[in-house]
């Protein structure tokens, strides 16, 4: 096992747990669908965070696969992945009871969950920029990352802060469409500077 394979197996495990948390929350909500109100807000948030993690995972592959392994890199990767795990843990409630309206949980936790994804993307963008310094075309690649990260922030931060469900749906729905379009492009994403949004950087994402 190479140093990168060791690092990525650890990093991927934590990101995988984030996806599992969302899937478990969704499955639990479906099990209680007759006694609770799920609503579309929580489902859209869950879809966005899941796609954001997937895009982020891809970006991490491109960012770290040529980076020299170090304990510092392991710590940085752990910090970023844990931020995502906490965000994913906030999408669905940990316990569900009869008569519950998931919209209440959504409005109580949506802001923190989305701002955590922004924090993870900013951390990843900064780490990526440091990895690119001194490499050919670094300025152009970093500029592309900065643009896509700016787009991410412009869409996600207002969605995190708004109390208007239509505005949230429009902003996050548009970002979901971006992710789905990127996923459908032939061979995309191939490189962090041309096909991903920072997640960081598809994002991401």
List the helices and strands and how they pair.
Elements: H1 3-31, H2 40-64, H3 71-89, H4 102-132, H5 138-161, H6 165-184, E1 199-202
Helix pairs in contact: 1-2, 1-3, 2-4, 2-6, 3-4, 4-5, 5-6
Structure explained in plain terms:
The chain is mostly helical and 205 residues long. The protein is 72% helix and 2% strand. The protein is built from 6 helices and 1 strand, in the order ααααααβ. It has helices at residues 3-31, 40-64, 71-89, 102-132, 138-161, 165-184, and one strand at residues 199-202. Helix 1 (3-31) runs parallel beside helix 3 (71-89) and helix 2 packs parallel to helix 4 (102-132). The model is unreliable at 188-205 (pLDDT under 50).
Task: Please give a handful of descriptors for the protein shown.
205 residues, mainly alpha
């Amino acid at each position: 096992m190479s140093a990168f394979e060791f690092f990525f197996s650890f990093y991927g495990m934590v990101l995988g747990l984030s996806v599992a948390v969302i899937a478990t929350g969704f499955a639990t909500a479906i099990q209680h669908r007759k006694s609770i109100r799920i609503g579309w807000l929580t489902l859209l948030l869950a879809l966005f965070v899941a796609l954001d993690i997937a895009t982020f995972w891809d970006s991490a592959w491109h960012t770290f696969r040529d980076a020299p392994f170090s304990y510092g890199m392991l710590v940085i990767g752990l910090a970023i992945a844990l931020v995502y795990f906490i965000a994913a843990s906030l999408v669905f409630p940990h316990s569900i009871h009869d008569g519950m309206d998931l919209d209440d949980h959504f409005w109580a936790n949506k802001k923190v969950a989305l701002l955590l994804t922004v924090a993870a993307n900013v951390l990843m963008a900064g780490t990526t920029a440091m990895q690119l310094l001194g490499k050919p075309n670094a300025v152009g690649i970093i500029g592309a990352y900065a643009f896509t990260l700016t787009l991410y922030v412009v869409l996600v931060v207002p969605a995190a802060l708004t109390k208007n469900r239509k505005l949230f749906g429009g902003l996050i729905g548009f970002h979901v469409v971006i992710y789905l379009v990127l996923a459908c492009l032939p061979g995309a994403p191939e490189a962090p500077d041309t096909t991903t949004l920072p997640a960081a950087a598809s994002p991401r994402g």
